[in-house]
Amino acid sequence: MSAGRDGRAERLREARIARGFETAAAAADAFGWNRNTYASNENGNAPFSYRKAKDYAGALGVRPEWLYDAVGAMRPAIEPGYVPVVGMVGANPEGVVLFALGQEPTDLAPIPPGGTEKAAALRVAGHSMRGVADDGALIYFEDQRTPPTPDMLGHVVVVETDTDEVLVKRLLRGSRTGLYDLESVAGPTRRDARLRWAAHITAIIPPFQARRIIRAGA
């Protein structure tokens, strides 16, 4: 079988089609992936790692365990009208998003006004983001995993760097094309970072209201 005995390539193609992309090239362009690399992963000519499966799964809205090993459901089981609280942010001056690695998000929050089922939420911990979001607030973003766009410049956004860090930073132009400066709410500015994706913040819910609407998991 050209796509390999594990079926990984077929699942990648299934996820891409389910996400609404008619061709591999269209998906690669939308998420900033190398066309040839993605096509080789999808047609089975080049196996991809679990780390890459996490990247693909996040962009295509499926579970990485399903994509890589056919374990469990294709998509996370999220109650209709709710989205996952995927991590905590602001626990230190760097504004790093802390994920529960290897675990499914258990806390849920209602989809915000104007949001979609691709929305996700971050919970603010500590006071390093004072002025943007206070301790206990919820920050929503659309989890689209697409490259930065010009309308994000000058705004506080959620980004992932090529060193696997997810951050909440003000996005600024770097010294040359493809590089970005990341300005902290509190702390030093990171210069000339390479980004995998960036997402606008779509809503910030104050701490009092956030405590009322979060549905805690088991």
From TrEMBL:
InterPro entries reported in the protein's UniProt record: Cro/C1-type_HTH (IPR001387), Lambda_DNA-bd_dom_sf (IPR010982), LexA/Signal_pep-like_sf (IPR036286), Peptidase_S24_S26A/B/C (IPR015927)
MF terms (GO), sorted A to Z: DNA binding
Origin superkingdom: Bacteria
HTH cro/C1-type domain location: 12-67
SMART domains per UniProt: HTH_XRE (SM00530)
Pfam families: Peptidase_S24
Name of the protein in its database record: Peptidase S24
Organism: Phenylobacterium soli
Lineage of origin: Bacteria, Pseudomonadati, Pseudomonadota, Alphaproteobacteria, Caulobacterales
